Amino acid sequence: MPAAAPVAPDAPSPAVRTVPAALRDAYRTVLPGAGAAQGPLPPLLLALTVVTGLVDAFSYLTLGHVFVANMTGNVVFLALTLGGAPGFSLGASLLALAAFVAGAFAGGLLVHRVRRHRGWVLLAAVLLEAVLVLGALATARLSATPFPTPERQLLIILLGLAMGLQNAVARALAVPDLTTTVLTLTITGIAADSRAAGGAGSRIGRRLLSAAAMFVGVLAGALALRHGANAVPLLLAGLLLLATGLGTGAAVRRADRTGAAWAQRR
Fold first, then answer.
1. How far apart are CA 234 and CA 225, in angstroms?
2. Measured at the alpha carbon of residue 243, what is the angle toward residues 241 and 248, in degrees to the nearest 5?
3. Which one of 3, 118, 169, 250 has the fewest CB atoms closer than 10 angstroms to its CB?
């Protein structure tokens, strides 16, 4: 009896091959195979996208209509403030931009100094981000509500640093369609790269997952603020970061043992 043909490590199972392409794409993003080109990075970055949603919901709703992760929004808010629109703070937007840039600079230093592999870069970034978010959680828990100006400024700085760091590292990892923050190009790609538009295929499953992760994070943050204390979104973000750190650490140990290709610096 002839031997069965070998199956590639990252090939989907026969059951997975029977479902639509979009669902297969989503499946491979959430549960990548052992030999997947990006290894375990896609689900880990999806978790960080949820963190972004939680943190931006907190910042916008409690820190004076300012984003700590979405810098496009802050540039818009700056212009609106200078144009005389009410409800926005020039100082808060500038502070968030400055903190984000400083965090991105720190992320760049981390990317260029950590030479071992991509998993170690992500692990270091997630742990540093967890420290910053948990520091913000402690600040929020110890502050009166609404937050006094010094505490509000400290929260913007801590969270802006965390989000700048996360974005710099996600950019360096360069996993397609998983930037953890910017969705404009992701949503554009769903339409512009579709076969109906003449493209090669829009990877709609992964792109929709990225948008859904942000949506879930923001929704969870808004509901937590409505039904709980101001610090709850930061608590959820901190717990998710710690879980992501544990998952990244396990992936790093496996990659060190096996010499996995996904972990190699590019």
1. 10
2. 90
3. 3
Give per-residue pLDDT as tens, 134-165. Answer: 999 999 999 988 899 999 999 999 999 999 99
| Displacement of CA 212 from its chain's centroid (Å) | 12
Please tell me the distance from the alpha carbon of residue 116 to that of residue 169, in angstroms, as a whole number: 14
Q: What is the pTM of this model?
A: 0.89
Contacts of 69 (CB under 8 A, 6+ apart): 52, 55, 56, 59, 100, 159, 163, 166, 167, 181
Q: Report CA-CA distances (Å) from 93 to 49, 52, 87, 170, 263.
A: 21, 17, 12, 23, 36
| Residue 235 CB neighbours (<10 A) | 18
The alpha carbon of 63 is separated from its chain's Cα centroid by a whole number of angstroms, namely: 20
- Tell me the mean pLDDT in the region 170-191: 89
pLDDT at 77 over 80: yes
**pLDDT value, residue 9:** 47
